């Protein structure tokens, strides 16, 4: 396959990784108390005060109502990891193909 094929696949994988991350980051809505109430979960002020840094982290994504319930879907963090790994694999394939093509072109007589 040509390098542009792998490069395009890498961009698609990165796009979906970003889309999944955004989905997870904004899954709590603007008001976490309202989101928890809408999902039938109790909002634990004490838990949130003890774990104040958790919702602000970029990875892994968590935004918990209480110790038992996270409004970020369970599949978001593994999907982001897998898509980024897939993008890295595609980048490696792209570089390998580009290097191979360059070497082949240098060996061709003019």
Give your account of this protein's structure.
Keywords: Membrane, Transmembrane, Transmembrane helix. The chain crosses the membrane at residues 79-101. The protein has four helices and no strands. The two termini are 24 Å apart. It has helices at 3-25, 32-38, 45-50, 76-107. Helix content is 62%, strand content 0%. The longest helix is centred in the last third of the chain and has 32 residues, at 76-107.
Number of domains: 1
- Beta-strand residue fraction: under 5%
The secondary-structure class comes to: mainly alpha
Which percent bin holds the helix content? 55-70%
Gyration radius from CA atoms, angstroms: 21 Å
Low-confidence stretches: none
| Order of helix and strand elements from N to C terminus | HHHH
Helical segment count: 4
Largest sheet properties: none
Provide mean pLDDT, rounded: 94
Number of strands: 0
The N- and C-terminal alpha carbons lie at a distance of: 24 Å
SSE blueprint and pairings:
Layout: H1 3-25, H2 32-38, H3 45-50, H4 76-107
Q: Any descriptors?
A:
110 residues, transmembrane, membrane, transmembrane helix, mainly alpha, 62% helix
